[in-house]
Each structure stands twice: as C-alpha cells, then as structure tokens.
C-alpha cells in the first residue's frame, strides 16, 4: 500500500496584531492578569480586505509551493471555518478558482466549530485512500468573532493553514480517529454576529473530555505510546488548556511547546491546531512522529498520527515558515481594530 | 473595476482578476494584461496563448487615496499603484498595508484580497492586490 499523507502544507497569518492589554484598557480590565490567566499576549487581526477566503487562498498557495504539483491534479477542496463570508455560496469554489485547481472537483464548506479543518483532512485522506482522487486540499481558516467586551474578544483571532493530501507525502498519515458528543459549550445561531459560550462549561465536559478521550482511544487503537511521539499538537483556545490536556494524558510539556502558537497570535479557531501542526512541520526531522488532536465545540475531536518522511527537508524551504508570519507584525490600537473588524457603521 | 451590480461581468473576469491570467503572442513574445484577442503588432499573423503571470513586478507609480469612490470608503487611506509586471505589462492595482514604505521601483508581489462588496447583503468581489516585498 502506498503511503498517503501531507504532500504540501502552507499557512497564512494576517500581519496586524492587537495586544491583550490594549483590549483590556478599553473595558477597564486588568490586562496583565488576563494575559497571564489566558496565556495569550496578543492576537492577529485581519486587515479590512482579509477574510476566511483570502487567508485560505494565501495558505493554499504556500501549500502548493511545497507540494510542487500541478494544481489541476487537485480534485477535492474542503474548507473548515466558523466565518465563511457567505452563508449560502461556498468559500471552496472561490479558493479553487483562485489557485487554479481542476473543475472536476469535490468541494464543500465544512462547519464543526474549530475542528472543521481537520475534518477536511480526514475526508481528503479517505478519498485518496479509496482511489477517488489523486490529491485533496483541506484548509482550516477563520477570522474569528468575539463580542466586544466578552472574554472571547481577547483571543478570537485570524489565520489559517492548508494541507494537500496525496501520495509521496512529507508526513505520512498513519491513522486517524474521532470522538464526538452533543455538548453545546459554544454556539452561534443563524444571523447572529457573535458566538455565545457556556463559560467554565467549555473546560472539563467539553474541551478536556473530547481531547483526552479522542487521544486515549487513538493510543489504544494504534498501540502507540506517549514516548513514541516527538511532538504533540492540541487545539489552542488559550495558552493553558493544551498544556493541561498534555499533562492529563501523560505527555511532557516540552513535546507541546513547538506547537503553541496561541501565545503570539491568539485562537485562530479552525486554523488553530493546524497552525500548530504547520509550526511543528517547519522544524520536524525525518522519522519523527507527531500527534495532533483538534477540538470543535458542539463537540468533537479528531486525532491523527503523522510520521515525517525524508521529503520534508527539501520541501519545507519552498514557502514561508509559520514563524515568519508570526514575527512579521504591526500593532493596531483598539480604534483601528474596531474599524478593521467592520464594527463602524458609515 | 467592473460595474458594481454586474455579477456576470465580474464572473467573466474571475480568471484574470483572481489569478492574473493574461496572454502572450507566441510570434513576437509580447505579453498582454488584460487579455487581448489579437496581437496589435502581428495582427492576423499573431498567435495568442494564455499565460498566468507571476504576479511579481515593481512600483512604476503610486498615489494615496484619501477620498475613496463608493464601495471603498472603509478602506481609506489606501495606496493605488501602477505596477510594471516582470513580464512587461503595466497594470493598476491596490497596494496593501503598510502604507509607509512605498517608493517607486520597490519590488512587489501579488496577493489575494477582498476588493469590494456591493453591500452587506451583496456580492463580495475578490482579486489581486500588490504587496511590497520585505
């Protein structure tokens, strides 16, 4: 059986940032305290002309550079997001046209809170495995919404990552497993501009139960042990939850450190765990193994094991690394942030 | 820019506005953007083929827009430039933030951004803009 996995990956993070202290200043809150309790210092902000589609296109262009394939050979595009610009009219067809993929295309926009991007990866993996497509493109991209003054406003950020799935990979998908239950910890109703969340309920019964159970079931299924992994990546709603989940599962904190991009860019929702993976792939060596567990409210987790191949060394230099996007930044104040997020009525 | 209310017109231009697809006369080697049906130099002897432009070029000229036309009001202040593409043609496009490092001759590359939207309930138009190389 030929190995199937990630043939090319790419990310994109808008270059504008707002500091947690700047948001706290507006609401009379203690910025330092919030920063420490969330483990987030600043978050990325989309420019006025950036949205889920533009982020997805830029990330996909980087994935194509690394994959070194003709985009015409991509036969499936799945975008996971909580902020598709249209409710009706797919983001996927715009992205497909913008990067020049085949029109003989399996395409759909996916929604499962923050795990829709990894769900796209599972679909592409299954379709390649079934021989239905040669290559599939899975993207997690978001310009996350947070109600002004709400706790989410400190972390809801923008960014995304794209993965081309096929043969001759730079990281083999060894196996994948999902765990899902009806747990409404975070939701946004039709027509509503901002999501609502259930406060502390988003922790134990939601994030931790799903991340820990999916990972535990995955380890049981595959027979892999904590020591078999060199890096782990979990969904990052803040800087604290993934570290706590790693501890619960018996992983040392140093294995998750490389993936923790949340501290400098915030929670990029569907892009979150995938940007963590992108940052790990930027440094991983051949034969190293990566565990990824995403989390989407509502609620579910997708778990993967990736085995890095020799192809990584040659391909990863073909596009900007995640760190370059994180470090290339310009700060905005709350006034400009409000304008860029389209909150001003003209 | 296409007529704001014309979805068919902007749809017809998708390929060129999304991916900088233009063309080239194989006979004389001249590149065209936007696409032309006939090479004005070679006329009927010309042989036109489709080309995807690299998106790379340099700033030929620019201006800052502070009073924007309808549909662009929220974006001010923003830069509009004439870009000389690596392949030859001069094209007009927005230059994305930051606005303070612009200079004639600076190298740029194409990025995919939201151009404008008809209204909050209308169609969103996407396409190329340019970014100064760091």
The helix count of chain A comes to: 12
N- and C-termini, Cα separation of chain A: 59 Å
Tell me, what is the CATH class of the largest domain in chain A? Alpha Beta
Looking at how many chains there are and whether they match, the oligomeric state comes to heterodimer
Helix content of chain A: 25-40%
- Main beta sheet of chain B: 5 strands, antiparallel
CATH topology of the largest domain in chain A: Peroxisomal Thiolase, Chain A, domain 1
* Helix/strand class of chain A: alpha/beta
Strand order of the largest sheet of chain B: 6-5-4-7-8
Characterization of the model:
The complex is a heterodimer of chains A (346) and B (134). Chain A is of the alpha/beta class and 346 residues long. Chain A has two domains: 4-170 and 319-340, Thiolase/Chalcone synthase (Peroxisomal Thiolase, Chain A, domain 1), CATH 3.40.47; 172-312, Peroxisomal Thiolase, Chain A, domain 1. Chain A has helices spanning 20-27, 31-38, 52-67, 91-99, 116-129, 203-222, 241-248, 262-265, 272-281, 311-315, 322-327, 334-340; strands spanning 4-12, 16-19, 42-45, 74-80, 106-110, 135-143, 158-167, 171-183, 186-187, 196-197, 231-234, 289-293, 298-308, 330-331. In chain A, the strands form three sheets. A nine-stranded mixed sheet of chain A has the order 5-4-6-7-1-8-13-12-11, with helices on both faces. A three-stranded mixed sheet of chain A has the order 3-2-14. A two-stranded antiparallel ribbon of chain A has the order 9-10. Chain B is mainly β and 134 residues long. Chain B has a domain at 55-134: OB fold (Dihydrolipoamide Acetyltransferase, E2P). Chain B has helices spanning 7-12, 14-19, and strands at residues 21-25, 31-32, 48-52, 56-65, 78-85, 90-95, 107-117, 124-132. In chain B, strands 6-5-4-7-8 form a five-stranded antiparallel sheet. In chain B, strand 7 and strand 8 form a beta hairpin. The longest helix of chain B is centred in the first third of the chain and has 6 residues, at 7-12. The model of chain B has no long low-confidence stretch (mean pLDDT 93).
